[in-house]
Design goal:
By secondary structure, the chain is α/β, with parallel strands linked by helices. It folds into four domains: 125 residues, Rossmann fold; 130 residues, 2-Layer Sandwich (Alpha-Beta Plaits), CATH 3.30.70; 101 residues, no CATH class; 103 residues, Arc Repressor Mutant, subunit A (Orthogonal Bundle). 56% of the residues lie in helices and 11% in strands. The strands form two sheets. Strands 2-1-3-4-5 form a five-stranded parallel sheet, sandwiched between helices. A five-stranded mixed sheet has the order 7-8-6-9-10. The longest helix is centred in the middle third of the chain and has 24 residues. The relative contact order is 0.06. InterPro entries: CheY-like_superfamily, Homeodomain-like_sf, HTH_AraC, HTH_AraC-typ_CS, Sig_transdc_resp-reg_receiver, Tscrpt_reg_AraC-type_HTH. One of its GO terms (biological process) is phosphorelay signal transduction system. It comes from Marvinbryantia formatexigens DSM 14469.
C-alpha cells in the first residue's frame, strides 16, 4: 500500500516516516509540507492512503481533500488533528475523509493498526471483480459521503449513486431523520403496505440516521403531503421515537438539501423532548440564512471559550445553551460539538490543576450520545462537579474588574503590564492593583501566570509544538524562565509533563 504523508511539522513527518518504514505492507511514496506540494506528489505517485494535517500553509488539509475528490479519487484520507480542530475534522468526515487520529494519541501501535486495516481493505478491493457493484459497506460510504454535502448534486454524483444501486425517480422525494440512539436495538420498523419505497439509509451525523424515500407513483401535491404525514406518523408510533421530515421535492439533485432540512426538523425535538413528528420550521431559503447566524454564534462562542477558564467556561456554555433554546439553533450536531469541546477543555484544565477525576469516561460517552438539551445540561453540570467548578466567593463583582479579567484572558500572550490592563478599564494602577487582589483573591501577576500556564498545559497535551514555541504562544519569550515557573506550579518541567501525558 502506497502512503503519502502531509504535515508542516518536520518532527511529525519524521516520526510517521519511521512508523511506515516498520510496516512491511506499506511503502512511503513521499512527504509534503502543505496541500499544494501534496497535490503535486499525489498526481505523480497516486498513493492509496494519505495521512494529512488539517492546518497548513499555502493549501490546508480540507482544500487538499476537496482537490482529491474533484479527481474522483478513491484514495483514503486520514486526518491528523489536535483537539481544537474538531470542527474542521467533522467537516472533513462529511467531505469524504476516512477517519482521523488525535495527535495526542498517535502512538506507534495505534498507527500500525490503522495501516494494517487500510492495507487489508485495499487488498480486498483489488481482488474484487471490477464489474461487480461495490460492497455494501463501500456503497454505504459512497452514498453517505455524497448525500452529506449541503448542496445540490452534480450529474457525476448522481451517476455515482446509480452505480451504488440507488433507484429513484424525479417525483415525490423526501427525507426522514431519527436519532441513531433510537434504532440501536433491532433497527427501524417500517409500515408494511405503502406507496413509498426506501431509496437509501445512512448515518448522517454522529447522532442522526437518515432515510431517503420516494413515492412509487405520481400523486398530487396534496396527496403527497397527506401520505408523507401518515407515513412519518406510523414510523414514529411503531418505533416510539422522534422523527424529523423534510419538504417534498421532485428534483433528485436537491436531495442533500432535503436531508439537511429533515435533520434540522429533528433538531426541534432536541429542545421539545417529545416523541412525535417534527415538520420543517423554516423553508430552505430562510434555513440557510439562519444557519449563517448559527455559525457566527458558534464562532463567537469558541473565541470566548478559549479565552475563559474554569468556572467561567462552564458558565459560558450554560448561558449559551439557554440562548440556543430561545434562538432555536437547529444545527444540533454543531451545538453538541461545543459541549464536547467545553468538556475536553475543562478536563484538561482540571488535570493540569492536579484534580483527580472519576467517571469521566461514562459522562463523555453520555455526551457523545445525548439527544436533548436537558440531557446535555445535566451531563455538563455533573462534570462541572467532578472538576470542582463552584463559583468562587471572591469572583470579580465590579464591572471594571470583570472587564480586566476578560482583557487578560484575551491578551495573555502579549507582554502585559499591570499599568496596561488598568488603563484598558480606565482605573488608576495603584487602585486597580488593590481592587483586583480584593475581588479575585490573586495579585495581577499571579492571575496572569495562572492563565498562561493553564493554556500551556493544553498546548502540551494537544499539539506537537516545541516547548519553546509554546512558551512564546502563552507570552513567555524566555523558554528557560517559562520552564522554571511551570515546574514551580506543576512539580515537573514542560518536557517531563509532555512525556508523562504520552
Amino acid at each position: 500500500m502506497k502512503v503519502l504523508v502531509v504535515d508542516d511539522e518536520i518532527m511529525i513527518c519524521e516520526w510517521l516516516e519511521f512508523c511506515i518504514s516498520q510496516n512491511p505492507l506499506c511503502q512511503l511514496t513521499g512527504v509534503a509540507h502543505n496541500g499544494a506540494e501534496a497535490l503535486e506528489l499525489f498526481q505523480k505517485e497516486e498513493p492509496d492512503l494519505v495521512l494529512t494535517d488539517v492546518k497548513m500553509p499555502v493549501m490546508d488539509g480540507l482544500e487538499f481533500l476537496h482537490a482529491l475528490r474533484s479527481f474522483n479519487s478513491r484514495t483514503k484520507v486520514v486526518f491528523l488533528t489536535a483537539f481544537s480542530e474538531f470542527d474542521l475534522i467533522r467537516q472533513a468526515l462529511r467531505d469524504g475523509a476516512s477517519e482521523y487520529l488525535l495527535k495526542t494519541e498517535m502512538q506507534n501501535d495505534v498507527l500500525q493498526d490503522l495501516l494494517n486495516r487500510e492495507a487489508g481493505e485495499l487488498h480486498l478491493a483489488e481482488n474484487r471483480d471490477e464489474t461487480d457493484t461495490a460492497s455494501i459497506s463501500q456503497a454505504h460510504y459512497v452514498i453517505g459521503s455524497i448525500l452529506r454535502q449541503n448542496k445540490e448534486l452534480t450529474e457525476e454524483e448522481l451517476e455515482n449513486l446509480r452505480r451504488c444501486n440507488i433507484r429513484w425517480r424525479n417525483n415525490g422525494l423526501f427525507a426522514l431523520a431519527v436519532w441513531k440512539k433510537s434504532i440501536l436495538n433491532g433497527g427501524l420498523v417500517f409500515p408494511g403496505a405503502s406507496q413509498i419505497r426506501h431509496v437509501a439509509g445512512f448515518d448522517y451525523t454522529d447522532r442522526i440516521y437518515v432515510i431517503v424515500g420516494n413515492f412509487t407513483r405520481t400523486l398530487s401535491e396534496a396527496e403527497k403531503a397527506e401520505k408523507l404525514a401518515v407515513y412519518a406518523g406510523d414510523i414514529q408510533k411503531m418505533n416510539n421515537c422522534m422523527v424529523g421530515i423534510s419538504a417534498i421535492t421532485d428534483e433528485m439533485r436537491r436531495i442533500p438539501l432535503a436531508i439537511w432540512q429533515a435533520s434540522c426538523s429533528l433538531g426541534e425535538g432536541f429542545y421539545e423532548g417529545k416523541k412525535r413528528v417534527y415538520v420543517p420550521r423554516y423553508p430552505l431559503t430562510e434555513l440557510f440564512k439562519k444557519n449563517e447566524l448559527w455559525k457566527n454564534a458558534f464562532t463567537e462562542f469558541n473565541m470566548h471559550l478559549y479565552q475563559a477558564k474554569g468556572y467561567q467556561r462552564y458558565e459560558l456554555l450554560d448561558e449559551f445553551l439557554k440562548n440556543a433554546a430561545s434562538w432555536r439553533i437547529l444545527a444540533v450536531e454543531s451545538l453538541c460539538g461545543l459541549c464536547r469541546d467545553t468538556f475536553e477543555l475543562l478536563e484538561f484544565e482540571a488535570k493540569g490543576n492536579g484534580i483527580s477525576l472519576t467517571g469521566t469516561d461514562i459522562l463523555r460517552e453520555q455526551m457523545e450520545e445525548c439527544i436533548s438539551l436537558e440531557e446535555a445540561r445535566r451531563i455538563m453540570e455533573a462534570f462541572a462537579g467532578q472538576c470542582h467548578l463552584t463559583e468562587l466567593q471572591n469572583a470579580p463583582k465590579s464591572k471594571n474588574i470583570q472587564l480586566a479579567v476578560e482583557y487578560i484572558n484575551a491578551h495573555y500572550a502579549e507582554q502585559l503590564s499591570l499599568e496596561q490592563v488598568a488603563a484598558s478599564v480606565y482605573l488608576n494602577p495603584d487602585y486597580f492593583s488593590r481592587a483586583f487582589k480584593m475581588e479575585t483573591g490573586q495579585t495581577f501577576v499571579n492571575y496572569l501566570t495562572d492563565v498562561r500556564l493553564s493554556r500551556s498545559v493544553w498546548l502540551l497535551e494537544n499539539t506537537a509544538l516545541r516547548v519553546q514555541m509554546i512558551a512564546q504562544q502563552v507570552g513567555y519569550y524566555n523558554a528557560s524562565y517559562f520552564s522554571t515557573i511551570f515546574k514551580k506550579k506543576y512539580g515537573m518541567s514542560p518536557y517531563e509533563y509532555r512525556r508523562k501525558e504520552k
